[in-house]
Amino acid sequence: MTERKNLSSNKTGRKKAVVLTSGGLDSTTTLAIALSDGFECICLSFQYGQRHHVEIAAAQRVAAAMNIARHEIIPVDLGRVGGSALTADIDVPAGRDPETMAAGIPVTYVPARNTIFLSYALAWAEVLCAPDIFIGVNAVDYSGYPDCRPEYIAAFEQMANLALRDAVEGRITIRIHTPLLHMSKADIIRTGIRLGVDYGLTHSCYNPRQDGLACGVCDSCILRLNGFNEAGAADPARYVSR
Amino acid sequence: MTERKNLSSNKTGRKKAVVLTSGGLDSTTTLAIALSDGFECICLSFQYGQRHHVEIAAAQRVAAAMNIARHEIIPVDLGRVGGSALTADIDVPAGRDPETMAAGIPVTYVPARNTIFLSYALAWAEVLCAPDIFIGVNAVDYSGYPDCRPEYIAAFEQMANLALRDAVEGRITIRIHTPLLHMSKADIIRTGIRLGVDYGLTHSCYNPRQDGLACGVCDSCILRLNGFNEAGAADPARYVSR
């Protein structure tokens, strides 16, 4: 366990956390919160065959801007599984109002995505002695995804503490932090602005153009634009048509 | 969801199951049990940077011999995470008796391995409408791994049914089948022989030679050899030194 001992030694004396980052608005705000809570953060991003793969570049920009010493980008081939508008040849919905979005689980749902991502986070959490895991799930603005609900997160946390050697042997307790869970998009944006997040670095669009411009009409763009509007702030993202 | 409808249509009329196979003795017996229970089986194997990567070839031989129509081999980079004798530069123990093995969690423990594997299985289970998942975990002969215990499996199943759209909306119920959980290695081998398993196709050694010969002294070889001995059967595997 040589590597482990090396990695767990912490020059800064700060507690370490694993933060799942996608380059989007929510996970970037989550990272800012984890940093402001005093954690030394290791970021994990996933290349999962998503059509909006420009988000990996955004995650890298964000990690660099926030001085993250370790950022792992993990290939996860969910494109082979399919079953989602984000990974298969299924159209992303456009022009929907937030009420319609909240009415059901959208086609942008990716089977078992958060479970797979959090499972990788467990492996890293154990090896790096970083039992605090941050994920930017939200159950308010976009309640459709089952794996963004508090009961799911609680069940995952319980399972995690039965799965890992260091948890079972009492050396760590996995805690899944979901600071955005009950915040509106506007609250998230206000929090991020207060913490100095540069939202110009982030990417939210599910259906970006080749040149990276956001579509402005997918569910993710609409929630983002409404959030900035409600927060009384300007969205620095670049859109195709406004 | 076109792909999904296609895949869920089932010419044979049999219920579909996802079976995690490693090419080893336990998962091969588990597959034989799932088939004899009447399931049409989709096999998932994981290339996770394990030092005994010859097991993937064994999993392919097994799937072919058992006429499995679909066998997915999924790359999962656990070598980058490290923390285990199976994926990092840590010696595999040799010459231990089963009592010593059972006394603690061995260095061959891989952080979050079953959680990551089962999480991928969830994605495939949902997309293929195959909510029955079989995994060859065993809590008797090798009780050291925390993610082989019944309480872990129960917690994972509970989490799974909160994670997936089709489970939350009542179309499927994920069930994690662990037919070997309380069987001794000898019982497992007797069951497999009764079901016609050709154990000559399987691979168990943690530390195989380049030519694929099993070492005969790692924990996995010792448990296998003891199991065959107790079952009164000859082990068809080829060993370096006996």
What keyword list fits this structure?
homodimer; 242 residues; alpha/beta; Rossmann fold; 9 helices; 38% helix; disordered N terminus
Summarize it.
Chain A is of the alpha/beta class. Helices cover 38% and strands 10% of the residues of chain A. Chain A has a single domain, classed as Rossmann fold.
Please give a structural write-up.
2 copies of one chain form a homodimer. Chain A has 242 residues and is an alpha/beta fold. The first copy, chain A, has one domain: HUPs (Rossmann fold), CATH 3.40.50.620. Chain A is built from 9 helices and 5 strands. Chain A has helices spanning 2-8, 25-36, 54-65, 98-102, 113-127, 150-163, 165-168, 185-194, 219-231; strands spanning 16-20, 40-47, 70-75, 132-134, 175-177. A 5-stranded parallel β-sheet of chain A has the order 3-2-1-4-5, with helices on both faces. Chain A is globular, with a radius of gyration of 18 Å. Residues 1-9 of chain A have low confidence and may be disordered. The interface between A and B is large, with 47 and 47 residues.
> In this structure, how is the largest beta sheet of chain A organized?
5 strands, parallel
What is the helix/strand order of chain A?
HEHEHEHHEHHEHH
In CATH, what is the homologous superfamily of chain A? HUPs
β-strand amount of chain A: 5-15%
Q: Identify the most extensive interface between protein chains.
A: A-B, 47 and 47 residues
The CATH class of chain A is Alpha Beta
Identify the CATH architecture of chain A.
3-Layer(aba) Sandwich
The total of beta strands of chain A comes to 5
Mean pLDDT value of chain A: 87
The quaternary organization reads as homodimer
The shape of chain A, in one word, is: globular
Radius of gyration of chain A: 18 Å
Query: Helix amount of chain A, in percent?
Result: 25-40%
Query: Which parts of chain A are unreliable, with pLDDT below 50 for 5 consecutive residues or more?
Result: 1-9
Read across the widest sheet of chain A, the strand sequence of neighbours is 3-2-1-4-5
Terminus-to-terminus distance of chain A: 54 Å
Give me the secondary-structure category of chain A.
alpha/beta
Q: What would the CATH topology of chain A be?
A: Rossmann fold
The number of helical segments of chain A is 9
